[in-house]
Amino acid sequence: MNRPYNFSAGPAAMPEEVLAEAAAEMLDWHGSGMGVMEMSHRGKEFGQIAQEAEVDLRELLAVPAHFKLLFMQGGGLAENAIVPLNLSRGEAVDFVVSGSWSQKSAQEAARYCTVREAANTQASGFTTLVDPASWQLSNKPAYVHICSNETINGVEYQSLPDLKALGCEAPLVVDFSSHVASRPVDWSRVGLAFGGAQKNLGPAGLTLVVVREDLLDRALPICPSAFCYKTVAENNSMFNTPPTYAIYIAGLVFKWLKRQGGIAAMEARNIAKAELLYQAIDRSSLYTNRVDPSCRSRMNVPFYLRDESLNEAFLAGAKERGLLQLKGHKSVGGMRASIYNALPLEGVQALVAYLRDFEAQHG
Ligand code: PMP
């Protein structure tokens, strides 16, 4: 089956193999007589599914033993409240505002603690990143929050900041929703990382939290039990009913990632995909990407047509060619191609060919 290429920012394209496997197992998982949706989360069948998912993900992301891996609900936006409830102790926290998502995170955290901005690149239209050496960190913040890949603005940290080297002992909190599993993570620099699953890991409804064990004792008394990391960790992510079907599908994605050669292999493919697309944009006189080349995202590529009156024709022509969901986020307009792990190089090649043909017709 020749499916169109799907450039959605999330929920996003899934590996086709995973969809086919899930379809084949829909009515009867491994001879159990049950579909996964119908299983008790406390039964041995789902226990095996959840356990394998955790082991595979820990291996893929090379998560050290002193971090807990939690499968939660609520998505990235809920984490904007759940993180300060668990880590802030109601004290001051530092935020690096590098785009729409870190800005939202800072606004939400301010309901629970004092928020200070260590840097803010809004004046650049969120097209740059500030060198961490120039961040205005406070004296002993409870934690420092960054969004390591800004999905809307297309800005990505090429490495995580080393807070210790900056003289800051606070844990680094990373929203890695939109590039988790696309590149390795340097866990020695991380206190906590969280991400919604619906871009690179699986279906919406599952939220991944990876948290250093020594940070589990800080929750405020008002923190809801189902969102208290310590409670969730002590119950192996089964304090409440976890998003069982989403965990199952994510587990299939993890096995698919392993078959692809793991995260290093995915990173190499993602670099090749991103280079191809940025080159095509930079060489054209119709399209433009406004992000500083030093921090362009490998996952989310926003671009604009210099003649915006062509936007509708561009999108309609793309759809005809089987290139779906290229419209940019409503807050910034233009176009955006999200090229997550599941979007193959052939998809980017097809997009690049379309960019060229459309420009030849309209440029
Ligand atoms: N953070 C980032 C980086 C995101 O891309 C998104 C969703 N696009 C969110 C947070 C919010 O996630 P959710 O919609 O799952 O709450």
TrEMBL record:
The record's free-text note on cofactor binding: Binds 1 pyridoxal phosphate per subunit.
Organism: Rhodoferax fermentans
Function: Catalyzes the reversible conversion of 3-phosphohydroxypyruvate to phosphoserine and of 3-hydroxy-2-oxo-4-phosphonooxybutanoate to phosphohydroxythreonine.
Cellular compartments annotated: Cytoplasm
Keyword Ribonucleoprotein attributed: no
Gene3D superfamilies: Aspartate Aminotransferase, domain 1, Type I PLP-dependent aspartate aminotransferase-like (Major domain)
Protein name (database record): Phosphoserine aminotransferase
NCBIfam families xrefs: PRK05355.1 (NF003764), serC_1 (TIGR01364)
Gene name as annotated: serC
Catalytic reaction equation(s): O-phospho-L-serine + 2-oxoglutarate = 3-phosphooxypyruvate + L-glutamate; 4-(phosphooxy)-L-threonine + 2-oxoglutarate = (R)-3-hydroxy-2-oxo-4-phosphooxybutanoate + L-glutamate
Signal peptide: none
Limits of the Aminotransferase class V domain: 5-351
Residues recorded with modification N6-(pyridoxal phosphate)lysine: 199
